[in-house]
Amino acid sequence: MRSNRTTRMNRSIGVAVAIGLVAVLAACAPTPDAAPSHSTPQSTEVNPAGDIPDNQVYVAFTASSGVYRIKVPEGWSRTSSGPSTSFTDKLNSIKTEQSAVQVAPSVDSAKQTVVPALAASRKQFTPGDVKPFQRGGGTGIELTYQDESAANSVTGTRVREDVQLFLFWKNGQQVALTLASPHGADNVDPWNIVTKSFTWLR
After folding, report:
1. Closest listed residue to residue 78, CA positions, set 99, 59, 106
2. pTM metric for this prediction
């Protein structure tokens, strides 16, 4: 009798252990709706519209007159018309224009002549500061203002622009350097590279 009682007891314990194991395994198994875990990929840096990339390469441009040289972003579209040359890429632009000016510009002369001329030639002109500047390649007058861009050739849309105009002068020659970006774009460093690279060659 003891042998049978022991056998039944062992069977009961075995069944209990088996049931316990099934319960543990069921608790550990993933539910049908559980999604497998994935490591989150690192996001790549995206430049806002109008921001010139930090890794932009610059190349030297020498005016056909041989009067000045400047660095401009490599790969930008270039258009020349007489003493004026423009470089454009998407929403940004650089323009240089050489002219004969007998007297160096001043803050007063820029306010009296340049600002009114800009206001008359632009429909959405909003004036900003007029102040002297100094760069390694020379000194002059800087004007800041806001304007509306030319219409996109495909979509016809226009954007509000922040514009900086630098008037370099030497020996009766003036070079107007205009830098334009969409309003709010952060191009302080690229524009510093461009303006600080300006060099008179004669």
Report:
1. 59
2. 0.75
